[in-house]
Specification:
Elements (H helix, E strand, L loop, with lengths): L6 H20 L12 H8 L3 H13 L3 E4 L3 E4 L8 H10 L4 H22 L2 H16 L4 H19 L2 H18 L9 H16 L3 H21 L14 H7 L3
Antiparallel strand pairs: 1-2
């Protein structure tokens, strides 16, 4: 799969796909349940690489606008809505932060959201979480698809918490999380451990144990930070090692 050498250019192409698909939905060209055009055809229309197209589609799937059905195709979600423009505007700002800073912010925000979800979530929220956890276990062989369900799980928790202000903040965080993580998820060494942690969080929330839910979320994020830092350095198309996850983030700082 081709890789972009410039992070800003990569993000610009991703957002080009996002904007184009959103416009098709807003104008009624694509409606809920419709299947989007085949990958090769769509990439040709947009005059971009298939890799960039996949990045945009993955982003919209992670945000709940599209549903990717393995082996079937990609469809407009029944509950499709526009990706929050505020989140999209701030997405580039997150690239100037170090991974440690992002994880610290997530610890504060998501620990509280998990506790609130345990106290306020309903059966429909729990069903969505359960579905995303099930999909994580089914996609160990496809890290990019696994990542989509990982992000959707965290969004489901924010929805269950029932606070629209925190939901907007979380939407921005998961946008940045997906955008950064999709470049490195192929290097993940143990997706099963990650899925197990998500299942533990889900079970605590479903049991309405706010203390256990917060604790499980914080443990998951700390383990995720440690695992991401220790991941092997991804290689570029010419076989050379690229910047490390930590180093790449630092290099993007203004």
């Amino acid at each position: 799969m081709p890789t972009e050498t410039n992070g800003a250019a990569d993000k610009q192409l991703t957002m080009k796909v996002v904007s184009h698909i959103q416009k098709l939905i807003e104008t009624g060209v694509l409606r809920a349940g419709n299947k989007i055009p085949p990958e090769r055809e769509f990439a040709t229309q947009l005059k971009i690489s298939r890799a960039s197209l996949r990045a945009g589609i993955g982003y919209l799937a992670a945000m709940g606008v599209l549903n990717v059905r393995h082996g079937v195709g990609t469809f407009v979600a029944e509950e499709a809505r526009a990706v929050d423009s505020f989140s999209m505007h701030l997405l580039s700002a997150f690239n100037g932060f170090k991974p440690k800073q992002m994880f610290e912010a997530r610890l504060v925000l998501e620990g509280g959201l998990a506790a609130m979800a345990a106290e306020r979530g309903g059966d429909l929220h729990f069903a969505v979480m359960a579905e995303e956890v099930t999909e994580m276990y089914a996609t160990f062989d496809d890290p990019q698809e696994y990542l989509i369900h990982d992000v959707r799980f965290h969004r489901a928790i924010a929805d269950a918490a029932g606070n629209p202000i925190l939901a907007v903040l979380m939407e921005t965080v998961v946008s940045a999380m997906y955008d950064d993580r999709r470049r490195t998820v192929e290097q993940s060494s143990d997706l099963r451990q990650s899925a197990d942690m998500h299942r533990t969080i889900y079970r605590a929330i479903r049991a309405r144990d706010a203390v256990a839910a917060r604790k499980a979320m914080e443990q998951h994020l700390r383990l995720a930070e440690s695992a991401q830092v220790s991941e092997p350095v991804p290689r570029t198309r010419n076989g050379r090692k690229g910047a490390s996850v930590k180093g790449a983030a630092t290099a993007r700082r203004p």
